[in-house]
Amino acid sequence: MLERIRIVLIGTSHPGNIGGTARAMHNMGLADLALVAPRCEPLTADTVSRASGADALVHAARTVETLEEAVADCTLVVGASARSRTLPWPMITPRALGERLPEELAAPGGRVALVFGREDSGLTNAELQRCHAHVHIPTNPDFSSLNLAAAVQVLAYECRLAWMEHGETPAASAEKDDAQPLASHEELEHYFTHLERTLIAIGFHDPAQPRQLMARLRRFTLRARPERMELNILRGILSNTEKLARPEQPSTGERASGEPGSD
Amino acid sequence: MLERIRIVLIGTSHPGNIGGTARAMHNMGLADLALVAPRCEPLTADTVSRASGADALVHAARTVETLEEAVADCTLVVGASARSRTLPWPMITPRALGERLPEELAAPGGRVALVFGREDSGLTNAELQRCHAHVHIPTNPDFSSLNLAAAVQVLAYECRLAWMEHGETPAASAEKDDAQPLASHEELEHYFTHLERTLIAIGFHDPAQPRQLMARLRRFTLRARPERMELNILRGILSNTEKLARPEQPSTGERASGEPGSD
Questions:
Q1: pLDDT of residue B202
Q2: In the prediction, which pLDDT does B12 show?
Q3: Is there a contact between B149 and A150 if contact means CB atoms under 8 Å apart?
Q4: What kind and span of H or E run contains A59?
Q5: CATH 3.40.1280.10 spans which residues of chain B?
Q6: B246/B174: higher pLDDT
Q7: Left (φ > 0), alpha (ψ -120 to 50) or beta: where does B218 sit?
Q8: What's the pTM value of the predicted model, to 2 decimals?
């Protein structure tokens, strides 16, 4: 179970925090680290010092340019967030996150990403809206900003407790044999791109005046946890709608399989 | 409740860890920090950098020479320990610790110390045997040594969760109105000193061949959580025993009230 939990750090500024994160992960039995557009050299003497023997995780980390790439294959993406937002998003506690993990990861192809933002500014709204849910570590309201590696430590600790309690074979897995695979993050993003293009085509959505339309549709869709099959149906509907809206255009070769490419 | 939880760091080597501890504490609403014989200058640029705004806790920290002094007024002393010992001690999980705190701190005069050892060697056996219980943060057996500030972070997080769940008025407090005050750590240590001296006097105990006798008696006594009144009775018994064992000696002026002094 723990090997299918990925820690994603976005725009980290301090190598020491990357080292501290690696140590916290390895301490709790996590190994999959992804760095999105780090704002520092990830592997420095500070990294190795704070990693205290866990720098192999930094060597093995994947460094990518966007959150998309880091979580493309994940079925559940949870962002660590301190702030309450103008558009409320499903918010869970670290403990509730831990309790959800065994069933999440028992689903076919299940993979979970825990996403942590920049030391100074956290996650952007766009990044937060790419998450199924936000997790908030309870803190002193007068001093709420946790050190990055400390925040990873707390969530990794909850992951380990959940794993210890439920082991590799949660009770729910037996009932899940006929469950369909959930859509991956990448498939969902292809869908949202397709959806937005279609809404523009039918004159329902003006990107110059977005009014949180896409954010609301994202929230709704992510809350439903679509299966891949369901997403294919939705994309079929969008393709047909697009054809009606722009009958003069040739088919764009839109694919519903979720492969990267035309959109 | 949180203001009656003390974090005690013994023999810390790295100022950064003291700063990181202060930040973790302040994030979780803890404020009472004690440093026992630090092996570094506690307040350096590293401390302030890692404290990230919480260095007031380090300024306010009490620095003392011994664990005794740091926890003298505490009714429950819990040591963070990674190792299993030759003499097994009551061992609790961080979560179970959190669950115990509200009732512990609702008791008259209740005060809890969470004790953390050296970065390189943890707590000594003598220090561990001064604790009522040991708390073990579950870790990857292949990489079990947590960063000091990260360990404080996890336990402080459990303290905060317990406080959030139970608030300041646990249900048990109403039933506890007629409860006797528990013995403080200092009173217990006076008792153990008195007990050992008495056991030597009666020829039952040879400090040159201790065979864990005192450790076993400590474990037994601490498990019982003696009230102050009970300890006074036990000390009265010891005083009388001593008089019988050494009838030639004048009274040592032994006091049963638990004040520091003759022993």
A1: 84
A2: 98
A3: yes
A4: helix A56-60
A5: 2-175
A6: B246
A7: alpha
A8: 0.78
Write the DSSP assignment of A216-247 as a string of letters. Answer: HHHHHHHHH--BHHHHHHHHHHHHHHHHHH-T
Q: Which of A20, A27, A154 sits opposite B139 (nearest CB)?
A: A27
Chain B residues whose beta carbon lies within 8 Å of the beta carbon of residue A145: 27, 52
Enter the ipTM: 0.75
User: Within 10 Å of residue B263's Cβ, how many Cβ atoms?
Assistant: 14
Tell me where in chain A the CATH 1.10.8.590 domain(s) lie: 185-245
CA angle centred on B249, ends B247 and B254, rounded to 5°: 100
Q: Say if CB A42 and CB A10 are below 8 A apart.
A: no
Encode pLDDT of B68-105 as tens digits: 999 999 999 999 987 666 677 889 999 999 999 999 99
Beta partners for B91? B134
Task: Quote the percentage of chain B above a pLDDT of 90.
Answer: 59
Q: Which residues of chain A make contact with B50, given a CB cutoff of 8 A? A: 147
Using a CB-CB cut-off of 8 Å, the residues of chain A touching B161 are 95, 138
From-to residues of CATH 3.40.1280.10 in chain A: 2-176
- Res. B179 pLDDT band, cuts 50 70 90: low
Q: What is the dihedral of CA B32, B36, B40, B45, to 10 degrees?
A: 10
For the domain covering B2-175, report its CATH number: 3.40.1280.10
Among candidate residues B38, B8, B145, the one with its CA nearest the CA of residue A24: B145
Specify the fold of A185-245.
Answer: Helicase, Ruva Protein; domain 3 (1.10.8)
CATH architecture of the domain A2-176 equals: 3-Layer(aba) Sandwich (3.40)
Option in A27, A145, A153 nearest B143 (CB): A27
